[in-house]
Amino acid sequence: MSGQKTVTPSAESLAASLTAAKTRGLPPVHLWNPPFCGDLDMRIARDGTWFYQGTPIGRPGLVKLFASILKREAGKFYLVTPVEKVGITVDDAPFVAVDFEAKGSGQDQILTFETNVGDKAVAGSDLPIRVVRDAETGEPSPYILIRADLEALIDRKSFYRLVDLGVHFDDWFGVWSKGTFFRIIPSRELP
Cα-Cα-Cα-Cα dihedral of 145, 124, 131, 67, to 10°? Predict the structure, then answer.
């Protein structure tokens, strides 16, 4: 026996571990590499609702706390503290971009997105916008990278506002932010 304490993951133990390690800003999850403790019955729905054991988490502060320790490795999602790493299920993207602000115009335009958990991200070459179209319906699903391989699905109202800012460039319809053009749809496919 190694003498190492066996940890049974729970939402409560994660919250307690994070509170003990609390720092200013986002925790340095990229520096934490604790052992994998198993999967937790936690799920993030496509609309951004967090569930624990099948029940929606109704405390926004707790959702923000968990969101701050979210990490993606090899396509899987984990909640990570200095002492625990547990797997969770994410239906689509872990965050939802619920609003954005546009400043400037043309190539000088700057788009700043806000997520359902209060994160802000300025779209640019380091935090790109991408649009995936459903192969059967052609329906777009737009995303923005928020941080470290974690994306937000851009909600419908924000996407419609984004399309209103769209321009044609190099045979594509899309938007500019921080000097980078983000493609939405080929120009030839628009009526």
Answer: 20
Q: Is 85 exposed, middle or buried (0-12, 13-18, 19+ CB in 10 A)?
A: buried
Read off the pLDDT of residues 105-147 as tens digits, 9 standing for 90 and up.
999 999 999 999 999 999 999 999 999 999 999 899 999 999 9
Q: Which amino acid is at 62?
A: L
Q: From edge to edge, which strands make up the β-sheet containing 172-177?
A: 167-169, 172-177, 180-186
Indicate the helix (H) or strand (E) that contains 72: strand 70-73
Residue 92, classed as helix, strand or coil, is coil
Query: Residues with Cβ < 8 Å from 169, sequence gap 6 or more?
Result: 176, 181
- pTM of the full structure: 0.86
pLDDT at 73: 95
Contact 144, 127 (CB under 8 A): yes
Q: Is the dihedral of CA 44, 46, 47, 48 positive or negative?
A: positive
Residue 82 contacts residue 29 (beta carbons within 8 Å): no
Low-confidence stretches of the chain (pLDDT < 70) are: 1-24
- Tell me how far apart the alpha carbons of residues 96 and 81 are, in angstroms, rounded to a whole number: 23
Rounded Cα distance, 154 and 125, in Å: 17
